[in-house]
Amino acid sequence: MTVTKVTVTLVTVTEVTVTLGTGMMSRMRVSVILVGLVAWAAHSAITAAAEPVRIRAGDYAEGGMPAIAPCESMLLDLTGVSLEEGSGGADVPDTLAVQIQRDGRSDYYAMPFVPGRVLYDLNAETLTGRASPPFIGFRDGAFVHILIGYEPFTRALDEGMFRDFWSLTMRVER
Q1: Which phi-psi region, left, alpha or beta, contains residue 136 (left: φ > 0; alpha: ψ -120 to 50)?
Q2: Each residue's pLDDT tens digit, 99-129
Q3: Which of 20, 78, 105, 149 has its CA 20 to 30 A from that of 9?
Q4: Quick one: CA torsion of 61, 155, 108, 159, rounded to 10 degrees?
């Protein structure tokens, strides 16, 4: 059997022409099967795209510079990250701050940092804009600075001021 003609639309296969060994032509519709295959492929693609980017911060030297693909959210895994201040001060980190630099501007976002917690989901629901527009994800061409520390005075992050114990910088690129 040899397939000699296949006509496909976006949602369904409209016609398949098959030549049998005897030369006889047979037309059959296989819409149901291929719609199922298209639906499965679309589901797989959506599922793959929905998987959040996961950054294991302990895999990078402080400061770092990993590249990530554009995404709506990111899981930050702090396993193995040391947050020792080093100066013996009594201040403790209480904020996870995100600075996004893109197109000549800097936007600041924050969420509570909880000592001992190792997994943080950075997304529009968990990050609060600090004198910045609502968080819309990590866009192509941006530099992202993730910092853990505290604000030296109330609303200091609104002015770009932050005392960090740890930081990681990432590039967002396709």
Answers
A1: alpha
A2: 999 999 999 999 999 988 999 999 999 999 9
A3: 20
A4: -90
Asked whether 137 and 50 are in contact (CB, 8 A), the reply is no
Q: What is the DSSP string of 92-136?
A: ---EEEEEEEETTEEEEEEEE--TT--EEEESTTTPEESSSPPP-
Letter string b/e over residues 111-136, b meaning 16 or more CB atoms within 10 A of that residue's CB: bebeeeeeebebbeeebeebebeebe
Instruction: Count CB-CB contacts under 10 A for residue 81.
Output: 18
The residue type at 17? T
CA torsion 147-153-158-160 (nearest 10°) is -50
pLDDT beyond 80 at 46: no
C-beta neighbour count of 75 within 10 angstroms: 15
Side chain identity at 155, as an amino acid letter? Answer: R
Phi-psi region of 39 (alpha: psi -120 to 50; beta: other; left: phi over 0): alpha
Alpha carbons 7 and 15: distance in angstroms, whole number: 5
Distance CA 158, CA 107 (A): 9
Q: Rounded distance, CA 142 to CA 9, Å?
A: 37
Q: Which two tokens stand for residue 136?
A: 């819309």
